């Protein structure tokens, strides 16, 4: 990939900074990034680089307990007094675990409404109270062991409830799902046809055997009976012959049209499971399929954790709730988006309030919130009407994360407002808010809802290089596409990934986690799934796709100008199929370090991958 000055991205990884902020001039933060980039070209200057002054004293906060900025280069730690992105997620997860523990505790004993200090052994914690202390970990372990006890021996875990099946959708299993019966619970016919005993031909009984009836009389050798799929198999049956594989002669005798194998088309009792078998572990989401399985296995109720409750506070006087933007006012993009996004994460949204830029109203709303989590939007920075920090100070809240080394979204924050109650402050810029949602709210809510952690994050190679921030992680919307030859998934970076833009994310399957310094074409990066994306590679791994270029996720990706989308004609990368080339909108380009507003100009790198110079939509990569 070439920069505007012709140098390769590898040789000059920061050369896209200057053109990244569109036609309206640089804002303060881009200046800052440029200064850093320039410093970087000259070689690192530890402790310098235009670092902003230390943040004004805020709510109680502590040193980061050993939160390195790795893998960022050394100057990052000094430049950004922010929690690293991985550490922020760990902290949010820990906050969720502790909120779950709190909820479980007060479910048993409402008077024990105090939390142990936030543990200090979590990298990146800012809570002084917890330094050196591990109190609370025992409680969490105890909670876990209840979840992981052997099948059939566990009581209902603290904080869990039993609900009828039809109320369990979207909740999290609090106990393993063990079979309450053999499945099938009796030997059953897999096909419509005849049951037969011994070698043919067979005399067919008059009595027909139907599903839903008690045991039929046993068969004698040389005897057959008409049977329906799902009906009980009589004792001494040899096999089931499908109706299309046998015929009866005019004497009423049944003859096979094919060789009959012993036991064919009989589903034996317990084929799927035996009573007491583990069907699903605790911590999994109750999906429609889980409901079906639970019902088949004999359940009327499920032990689940109640939904976490969240309240959304939308800040900003400039927001309109209908019509076109006018007179400096803009449409609120977060009010219509966040509650549903939270619901998709399994949350009960108890209220959505519009607070404007009213500090008193914000304080009252946060103080009075009953939910486990308050999510605010906007007001996280230090502008004249940014009231989130002062509000947290007024509440004597404990800031656990105050800024994250991630773009967009770096002003995001996480605070404990009181025992068991947390606040995630999302920045006002809409994509920055999504970044905050996935960085802080999602791990917190996942842990709070009792969901098991992902064993290994999903990764995919990038279809084209992505410019990195010098020191911060970037989250970049991508669509997942499958290479027809190798079957591998690629993450195709999308345009319109600026902090104020939703056009990229709306067309995406997920967000690529681009490490500080950027990532090259073909480099494997972590992908954050969106709650409604199919889950990359599902179709591929099941071998269901016959398409030469399978859409593994959101087919709308083409509308946001992914790499393969703009490679019209025969210039498409050779490792993608024809369909890729046909799918191409003409005038949008791949994520590129130096994209600015303007029309796309295609360039071809040595590897044949298309990139776009001067493409629209990548304004503000570094704000
Ligand atoms: N001096 C500094 N200023 C800013 C910094 C900084 O580090 N130092 N960071 C910038 C970044 S990056 C972001 S992101 C924003 C975050 O600011 P706030 O969280 O205080 O958000 P607001 O100022 O309220 O709004 C920012 C932007 O977003 C628009 N907005 C707000 N709410 C909504 C909504 N519900 N729907 C659509 N758009 C919304 C708002 O109008 C602003 O344009 O701070 C920068 N400044
Ligand atoms: O959240 Mo700002 O938009 O980090 O870039």
From TrEMBL:
Low complexity compositional bias: what residue ranges? Answer: 551-572, 598-612
One matching Pfam family: MoCF_biosynth
Record's InterPro entries?
A: MoaB/Mog-like_dom_sf, MoaB/Mog_dom, MoeA-like, MoeA_C_domain_IV, MoeA_C_domain_IV_sf, MoeA_linker/N, MoeA_linker/N_sf
Needed cofactors: Mg(2+)
Point to the regions of Basic and acidic residues compositional bias: 91-115
EC numbers: 2.10.1.1
Pathway listed: Cofactor biosynthesis; molybdopterin biosynthesis
The segment annotated Disordered runs over 1-118, 539-623
Catalytic activity, reaction form: adenylyl-molybdopterin + molybdate = Mo-molybdopterin + AMP + H(+)
What keywords does the record list, in alphabetical order?
Answer: Magnesium, Metal-binding, Molybdenum, Molybdenum cofactor biosynthesis, Transferase
| Span of domain MoaB/Mog | 311-447
SUPFAM superfamilies from the UniProt entry:
MoeA C-terminal domain-like, MoeA N-terminal region -like, Molybdenum cofactor biosynthesis proteins
Q: Which family does it belong to?
A: Belongs to the MoeA family.
PANTHER family attached here? GEPHYRIN (PTHR10192:SF5), MOLYBDOPTERIN BIOSYNTHESIS PROTEIN (PTHR10192)
Q: What does this protein do?
A: Catalyzes the insertion of molybdate into adenylated molybdopterin with the concomitant release of AMP.
Q: What is this protein called?
A: Molybdopterin molybdenumtransferase
- Organism encoding this protein: Streptomyces kunmingensis
